[in-house]
Amino acid sequence: MDQDKSGRVTYIEFLEMVRSDVSGLALRPAQLPDSQLQSLWRALDDDGSGFITAKEFGNFMRRGEAAAGGKGATWLELRTAKHRAEAEAMLAKRNKERDAMADVPPASDAEVRALAEQLHASMVARNYSSWFRLFKLMDADDSGIIMFVELQDIVRGELELSTKQLSEDSLKSLWVSLDSDRSGHITAKEFGQFMRRGVPEAVKMSRGAVLEKKRLLAVRNRADLEQERVERMEIELRAAARKVKAHEAEKALLQAELQKLTSEANSASLLASLEKSHQRQTLLKGSELQQLRAELQ
Description:
CATH superfamily of the largest domain: EF-hand
Number of helices: 11
CATH topology of the largest domain: Recoverin, domain 1
């Protein structure tokens, strides 16, 4: 249940554990109605936090085991046994298919390419946008792998290729070529590599042209952005230069005013000293003092 390994279980995870055929108890609404399941959840999540801990869930399940008198397997043992049985059944099915293909010769490289082109054309004709959509249809259990019977179902069903268009022997030979390690299954990567071989060269070239066009457009956009950045920097530099020039002019004006004030202050100080000395009659005569004051002013 705890898919994110947080140590806590949400209602969605709890619901999946109860209903899921693959990873849960496979209890249908007829066996356990949603209303009862929701009531049970509210009882377990008594603080309304939206989640329950593993300890709380374990305590609840042990109550059921105790009510059964400790007889039989626990719910965890039952679920583990169910999963083990499913895995063993899947393995047996895979081995059976592998053994059935033991005497089937693999398709040649040219045959594989021809079959890839045939399947790709059929896929496009039925409006499938990509091979991965086909793979997801085949991989119903989301295991990431498919077996021959699943490929067979898609080829005969979704792609509507009859045995006249694609014989069963050819399909089996293709499978043997794809399942080169004789594991009984192929992965999405292996299927994708096969399907890409069926893409016509013209389509590949057109895709290459589109990609190149996109690349050139991206380069052009980067160049435009770089030019805009340079222009912004030049504007900012010019604005900064104007500010510096204005600052220098203001500085020169202030220095001139300061020099003037300093000169005036020095003149005033000298006149005050001379007048004080004159009053004491120690330095200059009155006419000389008047003449000096006129010169300083």
